[in-house]
Amino acid sequence: MAQTNGIDHGDVMLLVGTRKGAFIVSSDQSREDWEVSGPYCDTNDVFHIVYDSRNGGTILAAANDSIFGSQIKISHDLGRSWAESEQNPKISDGSDLAFSRSWHIEPGRESEPGVVYLGAEPASLFRSHDWGNTWEQHGTVTLHPTRDRWEPGLGGLCMHSMVLDPRSRQKMWVAISAAGVFMTEDGGETWEPKNQGVRADFLPDPFPEFGQCPHKLLSHPAKPDTLYQQNHCGVFRSDDGGDEWHDITAGLPSSFGFVLGLHSQDPDTIYVMPEDQVSTGEAGGFRRYVPGAKMIIYRSKNGGDDWERLTTGLPQKNAFIHSMREGMATDSLDPCGIYLGTSTGQVFYSRDDGDNWELLVEYLPPINSLEIGIAK
Question: What is the DSSP letter of 331?
Answer without folding.
Answer: -
